[in-house]
Amino acid sequence: MVRQKRWFLLILGVVLLGGGLIWVSASRIAYGLREGLEIDENTWKPFFETISLLKEKFISDKPLEDKALMEEAIRGVLKALDDPYARYLDPEDFEIETSDRVEGEFSGLGLVIAIKDEKLTVVSPIKGSPAERAGIKAGDVITAIDGESTAGISLDRAVKKMRGEKGTKVVLEIQREGQEQIFTVEIVRDIISI
């Protein structure tokens, strides 16, 4: 009887250990973690505790959406890189981004923009674009789009607000280095070839 019990416990231990290893391996694969990539659980613990506390304690008229929390968390991680070109594209943004490259054109203002020092900044206007014709210059800071402040705006949201149907207007508030006053520029969207 004792011998059978020992064999049972040994087999159970092997099954549990094997199952645990399979679970860890499957989890790493599911989360896209490469073999050998070290994740320090203690470092990430506050992050998961925050998510847990939000789900348990946060009170709002609008329920929290896991997808929105996840996407903003990814954007926060990318923001920590201090690289104005690193950004997360949700499926809709990805579709817009790739369709531009496939089709070779889009309807908008013709600006290359980035978030620099937490400000929406013009990297450069595209040659011959409505933005260039309106006098937008590299280094200009866009402080508002159609009357809405750009403070804290994501790059993707800014791009969406400036793109639109050919012939429609966008009003930008611009802060230019060397000029005290913020000024307003109205630009008519057009087809931009890339």
List the quaternary state of the chains.
single chain
Cα shape: elongated
**Class per helix and strand makeup:** alpha+beta
Low-confidence stretches: 5-30
Round the Cα radius of gyration to an integer and report it: 25 Å
The helix tally amounts to: 6
Strand content of the residues, in percent?
15-25%
Helix and strand sequence: HHHHEEEHEEHEEE
Summary, kept brief:
The protein has about 190 residues and is α+β, with helices and mostly antiparallel strands. The chain has six helices and eight strands; from the N terminus they run H-H-H-H-E-E-E-H-E-E-H-E-E-E.
Characterization of the model:
The chain is α+β, with helices and mostly antiparallel strands. The model is unreliable at 5-30 (pLDDT under 50). The strands form 3 sheets. Strands 5-4-6-7 form a 4-stranded antiparallel β-sheet, with helices on one face. Strands 1-8 form a two-stranded antiparallel ribbon. The longest helix has 29 residues, at 2-30. It has 6 helices and 8 strands, in the order H-H-H-H-E-E-E-H-E-E-H-E-E-E.
Layout: helices, strands, pairs:
Blueprint: H1 2-30, H2 41-57, H3 66-79, H4 91-103, E1 105-108, E2 111-116, E3 119-125, H5 130-133, E4 141-145, E5 148-149, H6 155-162, E6 169-175, E7 183-188, E8 190-193
Antiparallel strand pairs: 1-8, 2-3, 4-5, 4-6, 6-7
Properties at a glance:
single chain; 194 residues; alpha+beta; four-stranded antiparallel beta sheet; two-stranded antiparallel sheet; 6 helices; 21% strand; elongated
